[in-house]
Specification:
Elements (H helix, E strand, L loop, with lengths): L4 E6 L8 H4 L8 E2 L3 E2 L1 H10 L4 E6 L4 H7 L13 E6 L8 H7 L2 H6 L4 E5 L3 E2 L4 H11 L3 E9 L9 E5 L5 E6 L6 E12 H14 L5 H7 L6 E5 L5 E2 L3 H10 L3 H10 L14 E2 L4 E3 L2 E2 L4 E2 L2 E3 L2 E2 L4 E2 L4 E3 L2 E2 L4 E2 L4 E3 L1 E3 L4 E2 L4 E3 L6 E3 L6
Parallel strand pairs: 1-4, 1-6, 4-5, 8-12, 14-17, 15-18, 16-19, 17-20, 18-21, 19-22, 20-23, 21-24, 22-25, 23-26, 24-27, 25-28
Antiparallel strand pairs: 2-3, 6-11, 7-13, 8-11, 9-10, 9-11
Helix pairs in contact: 4-7
Protein name: Glycogen biosynthesis protein GlgD
GO molecular function: glucose-1-phosphate adenylyltransferase activity
InterPro entries: ADP-Glc_PPase, GlgDAde_trans, GlmU/GlgC-like_hexapep, NTP_transferase_dom, Nucleotide-diphossugar_trans, Trimer_LpxA-like_sf
Length: 369
């Protein structure tokens, strides 16, 4: 277990292409898989590896995230020593980027006792065994380990993600962007492993010299000066950085193979417990290949869909390839296909809403249709 490691989750993520779902919340707290939030995956990965000290640096509109995380009890992080620490960037992003935000909370780093840090964002959906990655880092003796995954069909997925270019010996040459041109490439997961003192030195160097405003940019600009190790993750990975990728990540969970890997292979994925009653299915209910959370009332046909907590689906409705978040009400004789319904929306009787599998229709939070 990684008793000598601390986790840092930097939630300063690009939300431009998923704005309909992040108007009232950060990307990390978007509901996914019916009963989870996006941050649950990386947070569970850290605690499953034995990490007991986790700092989360968030930014604007973080009320829903703070409500979800609470004291950290679902992840066994409600501790007197170490545990879960939450830091807010404030309403306006720091002029100095994440370097400035981390510097403003330097006391957290200096008072922590762990030797190593795992630094990550929340938008990579996976179930990774950080113990193996940490072992690889320590055996390498290098300054930083970058975790990546080799993917196929890069032109159709992970668009906009960072891509690592490696030589034949797996040494890093450069870090660029996936522009959808190459069929095979190495996607950077945004996960780093380094010593705590090393990240402190990066922060001080960036502030003193002005060479970079973000940890990622500093490492990217100093590839020849830093001893960099790489670790290949070979499991399922999906980056949530757009409406399309969010829709795909949810639909992937309908695959039993992917679902078993994501939620069980390297430890369970934990989330906030609601203690609600089981879902009620009427005689009219017809459910096929779907994930349905607790507290729902289903009186309709549901196919290939993700249904969140306390959703009501009325008689005669037909739901196919949809994501319906908690508290939504789908009234009688509604037809939905390739649609994402945000929380607490009401879709009135007889409405028909259809999107495309590549470009799903999004009904934003607190709107009426």
């Amino acid at each position: 277990m990684l008793n000598n490691y601390m986790g840092i989750l930097n939630l300063d993520e690009n939300e431009d292409n998923i704005r309909p779902l992040t108007m009232c919340r950060p990307l990390a707290s978007i509901p996914i898989g019916g009963r989870y939030r996006i941050i649950d995956f990386i947070l569970s990965n850290l605690v499953n590896a034995g990490i007991e000290n986790v700092g989360i640096f968030t930014k604007t509109n973080s009320r829903s995230l703070l409500d979800h995380l609470g004291s950290g009890k679902p992840w066994d992080l409600d501790r007197k020593i170490s545990g879960l620490f939450l830091f807010n960037f404030g309403h306006i992003a720091s002029y100095d980027g994440d370097v400035g935000s981390l510097r403003n909370n330097m006391e957290y780093f200096t008072r922590s006792k762990e030797k190593y840090v795992i630094l990550a964002s929340s938008n990579m959906i996976c179930n990774i065994d950080f113990r193996e990655a940490a072992k690889c880092h320590e055996e390498s003796g290098k300054d930083v380990t970058l975790i990546y995954k080799t993917i196929q069909h890069g032109e159709n997925s992970f668009i906009g993600c960072d891509a690592i270019n490696l030589d034949k010996d797996k040494n890093i040459i450069s870090i660029g962007k996936n522009i959808g041109k190459d069929n095979e490439l190495n996607i950077f997961t945004g996960m780093y492993i380094m010593e705590r003192e090393f990240i402190i030195n990066i922060i001080h160097t960036c502030l003193q010299t002005g060479c970079a405003k973000n940890i990622k940019d500093y490492i990217k600009n100093n590839l020849k000066k830093i001893n960099i190790n790489t670790y290949e993750f070979k499991g399922y990975l999906q980056c949530v950085n757009s409406i399309n990728s969010y829709f795909k990540a949810n639909m992937d969970m309908l695959s039993e193979e992917i679902r078993n890997e994501l939620f069980y292979r390297n430890g369970l994925i934990y989330t906030k417990v609601k203690d609600e009653a089981p879902t009620k299915y009427s005689d009219n209910a017809r459910v096929y290949n779907s994930l349905i959370a607790n507290g729902c009332i289903i009186d309709a046909s549901v196919k290939n869909s993700i249904i969140g907590r306390r959703v009501i689906i009325g008689k005669g409705a037909e739901i196919e390839n949809c994501i319906i978040m908690q508290g939504a009400e789908i009234q009688e004789n509604v037809t939905l296909k390739n649609v994402i319904i945000d929380k607490n929306n009401i879709i009135e009787k007889g409405k028909e809403l259809k999107g495309d599998s590549e470009f799903p229709l999004v009904i934003e939070k607190r709107t009426l249709s």
